[in-house]
Design goal:
Helices cover 37% and strands 18% of the residues. It is globular and about 45 Å long. Strand 1, helix 3 and strand 2 form a beta-alpha-beta unit. The protein is of the alpha/beta class. A seven-stranded mixed β-sheet has the order 3-2-1-4-5-7-6, with helices on both faces. The protein starts with a helix and ends in a 9-residue tail after the last helix. The longest helix has 15 residues. The protein has one domain: Vaccinia Virus protein VP39 (Rossmann fold), CATH 3.40.50.150. 46% of the residues are buried. The structure holds S-adenosyl-L-homocysteine and magnesium ion. The site of S-adenosyl-L-homocysteine has 21 residues, from helix 3 and strand 2. The site of magnesium ion (MG) has 4 residues, from loops.
């Protein structure tokens, strides 16, 4: 990664250690060479988007990074990871979009990263481009993460790379929702693990049975969304 990208990534607010970011970058560089877009669920202030966006720039593809920018349940006021600086004084709501914009401008990655502002389940309804790499790092509640794991992995191209953050097999280290959902994907046989650094897991899409999706049954929330009316999701 070039020094400008590395400096912007390290300076950005966020929850990703540099070592994990570099592993994500390398995985995206390898996957992006195939030509499809990269997609991230959970932009926050743009830290992981720099690691991924730098790879997109180098590989000649694009990163789409999705966030409603209102913050996950677990980073709202009163929670240990809440940052009062990202609250919009006019609305009293969290708004991390200006921080993400600043991070990407400082990295010089505006032409390589498309910020998509919206709920991930809503964006998934009309998304059809096969992904070279998918990074799931959105909300960690069972409902929101359940939707992400049901909606997005089926959109990976065959052989595409799945990256998941905050996978803790020891409950003492962190919440178990991403671990449980990721384990279900591996158990389906559609994904095979290819690497791990810290709480980052990397897997490859090796088959397309959709078994995990049916077992989880968690695409329900997308089906309920008004934008999904009449859509086979
Ligand atoms: N990937 C970032 C951190 C993401 S934090 C990094 O490493 O730098 C998780 C983000 O997911 C938050 O910014 C939150 O607003 C977003 N999020 C939570 N639920 C969401 C949903 N349903 N749709 C879109 N974004 C969501
Ligand atoms: Mg994370």
């Amino acid at each position: 990664m070039n020094p400008r990208h590395a400096a912007a990534a390290v300076a950005a607010k966020g929850f990703m250690p540099h070592e994990e970011g570099m592993a994500l970058h390398e995985a995206a560089l390898a996957a992006g060479g195939a030509g499809g877009p990269l997609l991230e669920v959970g932009t926050y202030c743009g830290k992981s988007a720099v690691y991924l966006g730098a790879a997109a720039a180098q590989a000649g593809t694009l990163l789409y990074s999705i966030d409603h920018h209102r913050g996950s349940e677990e980073i709202q006021p009163g929670w240990p990871d809440h940052d009062p600086e990202v609250v919009d004084q006019a609305t009293g709501l969290m708004d991390t979009l200006p921080f993400a914009r600043r991070t990407l401008a400082e990295a010089g990655l505006d032409d390589h990263v498309v910020l998509v502002v919206g709920r991930s389940a809503t964006v998934a309804v009309h998304w059809s481009a096969p992904l070279a790499l998918l990074f799931i790092d959105g909300g960690h509640g069972a409902d929101v993460a359940g939707d992400d794991f049901a909606n997005w992995p089926p959109k990976l191209a065959p052989g595409g790379t799945l990256a998941v953050h905050d996978v803790f097999d020891d409950p003492a280290q962190g919440g178990q929702v991403p671990y449980r959902l990721y384990s279900q994907l591996l158990a389906s046989g559609d994904f095979a693990e290819v690497g791990s650094v810290g709480s980052l897991r990397l897997a490859r899409r090796v088959a397309s049975t959709g078994r995990a999706l049916r077992a989880g049954g968690t695409a329900e929330a997308t089906r309920r969304h008004p934008a999904a009316a009449g859509f086979p999701v």
